[in-house]
Amino acid sequence: MKPIRVLLVDDHSLFRKGLAALLAREKGFEVAGEAQDGIEAFAKAKELKPDLVLMDISMPRCDGVEATRRIRKAFPAVKIVMLTILEEDKKLFQAIKAGAQGYMLKNVKPEALFETLRGVLAGEAAISRATATKIMNEFAEQAGRGHTDSGREDLSERELGVLQLLTQGMTNKEIGHKLHLAENTVKNHLKNILDKLQLDNRVQAAAFALKKGLASETEPAE
């Protein structure tokens, strides 16, 4: 299996080097390169074509939000995870709107870092459950824009069940366990949901479900 190629973007060299050392020691990861600001990050992403970018939010010249917007527009397959000190940084919400798959606090433990990055490549969102609802509410109005109906008639009962569990902050693996489905089957259901609702990612799908009342209080059938 090919290693996950990671581009590290942070204006603090010492922090970057520490991350690089951690990733170099962990099986399944490869540090593709480093950048010290958003402008350099875009150039490196174009040159190196990493699988994933670990992006600091606050940097000189071009911050993480603008860099995320540029990279996602040019290279939509690249996953981006924001690095932040504060969970409620306003720029964090802007970055996720720009296409980031989530965020990690800079004081995260190495084991959690590796697990989360693998999850992002598998289609998970790197968003803590503690703030998932806040982020979903932030996107609810945007996610529902342009949809005049509930969207319910377009989704199968199984897809509705997956969507409901998604709003509870569950990972694909947890949803599969709950519904007795293989993880790959959950991924396929999620892809169908996004296609049918014309949304970009699982955060928007969860926000759409909350806004349109597709997530009920009762648990989906197993």
How do the strands and helices of this protein lay out in sequence?
Blueprint: E1 4-9, H1 13-25, E2 29-35, H2 38-48, E3 52-56, H3 64-74, E4 79-84, H4 90-97, E5 102-105, H5 110-121, H6 129-144, H7 157-166, H8 172-179, H9 183-197, H10 202-212
Parallel strand pairs: 1-2, 1-3, 3-4, 4-5
Helix pairs in contact: 2-3, 3-4, 6-10, 7-9, 8-9
The chain-level structural class is alpha/beta
Strand content: 5-15%
Task: Write the element-wise H/E pattern from the N-terminal end onward.
Answer: EHEHEHEHEHHHHHH
What is the terminal-to-terminal distance? 33 Å
Q: Rough shape?
A: globular
Question: How many strand units?
Answer: 5
**What is the average per-residue confidence, as pLDDT, rounded to a whole number?**
83
**Number of distinct helices:** 10
Biggest β-sheet: count, sense, barrel? 5 strands, parallel
Low-pLDDT parts are none
Radius of gyration: 18 Å
Helicity range? 40-55%
| Largest sheet, spatial ordering of strands | 2-1-3-4-5
Give an overview in words.
By secondary structure, the chain is α/β, with parallel strands linked by helices. It contains ten helices and five strands. The chain has helices at 13-25, 38-48, 64-74, 90-97, 110-121, 129-144, 157-166, 172-179, 183-197, 202-212, and strands at residues 4-9, 29-35, 52-56, 79-84, 102-105. Strands 2-1-3-4-5 form a five-stranded parallel sheet, with helices on both faces. The relative contact order is 0.11. The model has no long low-confidence stretch (mean pLDDT 83).
